[in-house]
Every structure is written in C-alpha cells, then in structure tokens.
Amino acid sequence: MLQPQERIRFEQLVLPHLDGAANLARWLLRNRADAEDIVQEAVLRAYRFFEHFRGGDARAWLLQIVRNSCYTWLEKNRLSELMTEFDEEMHQRPSASPEALAVQSDERQQLTVALESLPPRSREVLVLRELEGCSYKEIGEITGIPIGTVMSTLSRARERLQQILISTAAKEASNDL
C-alpha cells in the first residue's frame, strides 16, 4: 500500500491518463470488455509499483504498462494475431453485403474498420500518435522501439490505412453505379 502522500501523487499523475490507457487497450485488443479488464489490471500494477516511479512522463509510463499488459494478454489468448505480420491476402476485408455497406457508410465507421484491419504494431503506433498525440520519443518509450522504427512504422501504417480507405471508397462508388 502506498503512503497517503504517494497515493495522492499517484492520483494526480496517473489517473488523468485513464482515458488514453483505455483507448490504447481498446485499439490493441479490439474488444471493449477485454480492454477494460486489461486497463484495470494495468492500473493496479501501476499502483503497486508506483514507489519505483522516479518521475518523468507518467502518461508514457502508464501507457507502457497498458501496452505490455495487452501484449501479454494477446500472447495468451490470440497468439496467432501477434505472429502474423501484414499479408495482403490475409488482411483483405471480405466483400461486404449491401446491408453492411449501408452500415459502414459513416466515415468514422470506415476508419474504425480500416484501423482494425491493420496489424497490432501498426495500429498501436497510429493510435498513440494520431489519437493520443504522443511524440515519436514517447511512442518509442512506450513500445520499446527506436524512434527511427517508430517513424517508419508510422509511415507504413498511414500509407496502408490510406490504401484501405481509398479501396473502400472505390468499392462504394462502384456499388452506387
């Protein structure tokens, strides 16, 4: 248990970042219930080890714990998803029925589907940069990868996301004809 002063410090430094932690977990796991469980577990872990936190960026520290917890969970529950890098044929979206296209007409839904079709590393780097506003340095700290790799992964992820969205728009346009 933390001393009262440390508990207050934990609440001030870590708890404001719970939304970002939940967002990252949701995108990595693609399941809200699993993400909530993992975030709860990660926050408990952060609380338990907060006495070892020596300052710095509490947000990056918490997101790193959440990320590691997500990958540990994926290794136990969906190992095949982690083992598979991007493969054009495997990660192609199946052709959707007219009903599914109607549901996906919303741009936000299309973006969600496109993001979910990316491999985990691409998805996490995009979420951390574009949705959580992390710097390249923070992403490197959270993921444990060099900044150059962060930048190249982000570039490829953006490119692939753009290809998916263009392809989706082209399919919708051809279906409207």
Provide a brief overview of the structure.
With 177 residues, this protein is an all-alpha fold. Helices cover 73% and strands 0% of the residues.
What integer is the average pLDDT? 85
Helix content: over 70%
**Radius of gyration, whole Å:** 18 Å
What is the end-to-end distance?
A: 65 Å
Main sheet: strands, sense, barrel? none
What are the segments in which pLDDT stays under 50 over at least 5 consecutive residues?
A: 100-104
Q: What structural category do the secondary elements indicate? A: mainly alpha
Order of helices and strands: HHHHHHHHHH
The percent range for strand residues is: under 5%
How many helix segments?
10
Can you give a write-up of this model?
This protein has helices spanning 4-13, 18-29, 32-48, 58-77, 79-83, 98-103, 107-116, 120-131, 136-143, 147-176. It is mainly alpha-helical and 177 residues long. The longest helix has 30 residues, at 147-176. It starts with a helix and ends with a helix.
